[in-house]
Amino acid sequence: MKLGRYISIFLLTILIGVVVLLFVIPLILGDLAGDFDIVIGIIIIIIGSFIITQLFYIIDLLHKNKR
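RE: above sequence
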Protein backbone atom coordinates (compact mmCIF):
# COMPACT_ATOMS: atom_id res chain seq x y z
CA MET A 1 0.00 0.00 0.00
CA LYS A 2 1.20 3.44 -0.85
CA LEU A 3 1.78 5.89 1.99
CA GLY A 4 1.26 8.94 -0.25
CA ARG A 5 -2.42 8.14 -0.61
CA TYR A 6 -2.96 8.30 3.14
CA ILE A 7 -0.91 11.47 3.50
CA SER A 8 -3.06 13.14 0.85
CA ILE A 9 -6.26 11.98 2.59
CA PHE A 10 -4.92 13.37 5.88
CA LEU A 11 -3.98 16.74 4.39
CA LEU A 12 -7.23 17.02 2.43
CA THR A 13 -9.36 16.42 5.52
CA ILE A 14 -7.31 19.00 7.45
CA LEU A 15 -7.77 21.51 4.63
CA ILE A 16 -11.53 20.97 4.48
CA GLY A 17 -11.82 21.19 8.26
CA VAL A 18 -9.84 24.42 8.49
CA VAL A 19 -11.87 25.99 5.69
CA VAL A 20 -15.08 25.10 7.51
CA LEU A 21 -13.68 26.29 10.84
CA LEU A 22 -12.29 29.60 9.65
CA PHE A 23 -14.73 30.62 6.92
CA VAL A 24 -18.10 28.90 7.20
CA ILE A 25 -18.66 28.89 10.98
CA PRO A 26 -17.91 32.65 11.43
CA LEU A 27 -20.32 33.41 8.58
CA ILE A 28 -23.07 31.50 10.38
CA LEU A 29 -22.36 32.48 13.99
CA GLY A 30 -20.95 35.94 13.49
CA ASP A 31 -18.30 37.12 15.95
CA LEU A 32 -19.12 34.59 18.68
CA ALA A 33 -16.02 32.45 18.11
CA GLY A 34 -12.90 33.62 19.92
CA ASP A 35 -9.23 32.76 19.51
CA PHE A 36 -9.37 29.98 22.08
CA ASP A 37 -12.22 28.29 20.20
CA ILE A 38 -10.17 28.31 17.00
CA VAL A 39 -7.21 26.61 18.73
CA ILE A 40 -9.45 23.89 20.14
CA GLY A 41 -11.12 23.52 16.73
CA ILE A 42 -7.79 23.05 14.96
CA ILE A 43 -6.73 20.40 17.49
CA ILE A 44 -10.03 18.57 16.98
CA ILE A 45 -9.62 18.79 13.20
CA ILE A 46 -6.12 17.27 13.35
CA ILE A 47 -7.26 14.41 15.60
CA GLY A 48 -10.35 13.81 13.44
CA SER A 49 -8.26 13.81 10.26
CA PHE A 50 -5.92 11.24 11.78
CA ILE A 51 -8.86 9.01 12.72
CA ILE A 52 -10.39 9.31 9.23
CA THR A 53 -7.05 8.41 7.64
CA GLN A 54 -6.70 5.39 9.92
CA LEU A 55 -10.21 4.25 8.96
CA PHE A 56 -9.28 4.40 5.27
CA TYR A 57 -6.15 2.36 6.03
CA ILE A 58 -8.14 -0.28 7.94
CA ILE A 59 -10.74 -0.51 5.17
CA ASP A 60 -8.01 -1.00 2.55
CA LEU A 61 -6.32 -3.59 4.78
CA LEU A 62 -9.57 -5.52 5.15
CA HIS A 63 -10.17 -5.41 1.39
CA LYS A 64 -6.65 -6.72 0.79
CA ASN A 65 -7.12 -9.62 3.24
CA LYS A 66 -10.50 -10.47 1.71
CA ARG A 67 -8.99 -11.20 -1.69
